[in-house]
Amino acid sequence: MKNIAIIMGGYSSEVEISLKSGAVAYQHLSRKIYHPYRVHILKDKWVVLDDADNEYPINKHDFSTKISDEKITFDCVFNAIHGHPGEDGTILAYFELLGIPHTSAPFYQMALTFDKYDTLSLIKSFGIKAAPSICVFKGDKINEGEIISKIGLPCFIKPSRAGSSFGISKASKKEQIIPAIEKAFTEDNKILIEGFLDGTEISVGVIEYQKKLKVLPITEIVSENDFFDYEAKYEGKSQEITPARISKTQEENAIATAKKVYKILNMSGFSRSEYIFIDDEPHFLEMNTVPGLASGSLLPQQVAEAGISLEDLFGNAVEQAISL
Fold first, then answer.
1. Residues 120, 239, 305, 5: is their CA dihedral positive or negative?
2. Nearest one of 174, 171, 167, 165 to 223, comparing CA atoms
3. DSSP structure string for 297-312
4. Does position 233 have pLDDT exceeding 60, yes or no?
5. For residue 65, what are the β-bridge partners?
6. Contact present, 33 and 1 (Cβ < 8 Å)
7. What pLDDT does residue 226 have?
8. Other CB atoms within 10 Å distance of the CB of residue 124
9. What are the pLDDT digits (tens) for 185-212?
10. Structure pTM?
11. What is the DSSP letter of 285?
């Protein structure tokens, strides 16, 4: 029976969301094939939890643990860490050095896709449509007039390397730009300022399933708030409609674009990307490479619509990682 470490937690604002995702993976991995372990990767400790929530420290030299005097090593790591150090590839480089397979893309692809501005820069060079955008670093001199002339109003100001809509603001007036920038800098020292796109927003899951690239049923996002922010994502302030109420042409364009983006970025494993339609053309917003796995999250909704069980989805991810 294969030992699977489900890593969860992390060092970012997304700790609690990650713990929920990890708990779902732990619940649904088949006990007939695997022995799953919950592994909390936190700033102050790396520990394995047993069923009674007793904690056993991880030996960082080889990512093993000792339970009842028995050394436990892992055949594969299931990555459920949103943000740093899981979604940005940091801890995955460590596993690759140790030779432990993991369910995410290689660390470089994870680092690239975690940086919204760098991802946009690359995919635009391949002809993928997106909103106008600029990058600002902490310490740069901010010229609101220059931002407005390049990007227009309203605009979105967001950390380039953060998830779950932490630190994101919509600026509709000049005087809102500096406070929004300061808010974004609480999450990252590099921020993305992006033009507003007025159209239908969709979320497209692309995964590798049974050794083939699969685009999942598309979700339409209708936020009650000004945009798809934290409340809309996690506190019920949005409608998430799967399958999306879009035309056949829009669906075909979204599927083709999502596949192209996945290949451009040399991705593997799970992904979920957001797009906005301008007319029938999907405009790329961002990619999530460790999508939320809790019952209300988008990827599980799409997987259910596709007729795939979470047990099959997670088992497929593990087997694919081990076979590489």
1. positive
2. 165
3. SHHHHHHHHTT--HHH
4. no
5. 72
6. yes
7. 60
8. 14
9. 998 999 999 999 999 999 999 999 998 9
10. 0.91
11. E
